[in-house]
Specification:
The protein is α+β, with helices and mostly antiparallel strands and about 170 residues long. Helices cover about 25% and strands about 25% of the residues.
Length: about 170
């Protein structure tokens, strides 16, 4: 017989133990599935890669800008300095989870036009033709002068109205 204050070690009912074990297995399986889903690899193709047959239709000296648009579609980019150089860019990348994407393949077709809007040259560049660049360290200076914290603080006095209306 037990005395007052004695504790009796009674195991919990068997059904509760089974439910708890099932819940743990389900939780572990769900967490494992979520971890594996986060490690998926995604490949992405961006841009239009023209078919060789389409490119064969473009003849330097005879094909016009309008015809190039009909054959290849609108360019991915146009030269920043003049509109006589069009770029058709296609890039294939691979990304694993949250890591930065890796470029697998890149193709650039360059269509140069003369002053009359007729194709002058059709060029092709690949990833191997690219050159890695290293940005210059530091910041690009902006025009104007540097203000101190106090000048910035005092310069804002009176710029805001207290009524809340614009």
């Amino acid at each position: 017989m037990g005395f007052v204050g004695d504790t009796v070690n009674v195991p919990p009912p068997r059904g509760n133990r089974m439910r708890c074990a099932g819940w743990r297995r389900w939780t572990v399986a769900t967490l494992a599935a979520m971890a594996l889903a986060g490690c998926t690899v995604s490949e992405d193709q961006r841009g239009h890669l023209p078919d060789p047959d389409q490119l064969a239709e473009i003849k330097p000296g005879t094909t016009t800008k309008e015809q190039v648009v009909k054959i290849l579609g609108s360019p991915s980019s146009v030269s920043a300095f003049n509109d006589d150089t069009w770029y058709y860019i296609s890039r294939k990348t691979k990304q694993v989870a949250f890591l930065s994407p890796t470029v697998l393949d890149q193709q650039v077709y360059i269509v140069d036009f003369d002053d009359r809007g007729v194709v002058k040259d059709l060029g092709h560049r690949t990833m191997e033709d690219g050159a890695a660049i290293t940005p210059a360290p530091g910041a690009t200076p902006a025009p104007g002068r540097e203000l101190t914290f106090i000048e910035q603080l005092l310069g804002n006095i009176g710029r805001f109205n207290s009524g809340g209306a614009p």
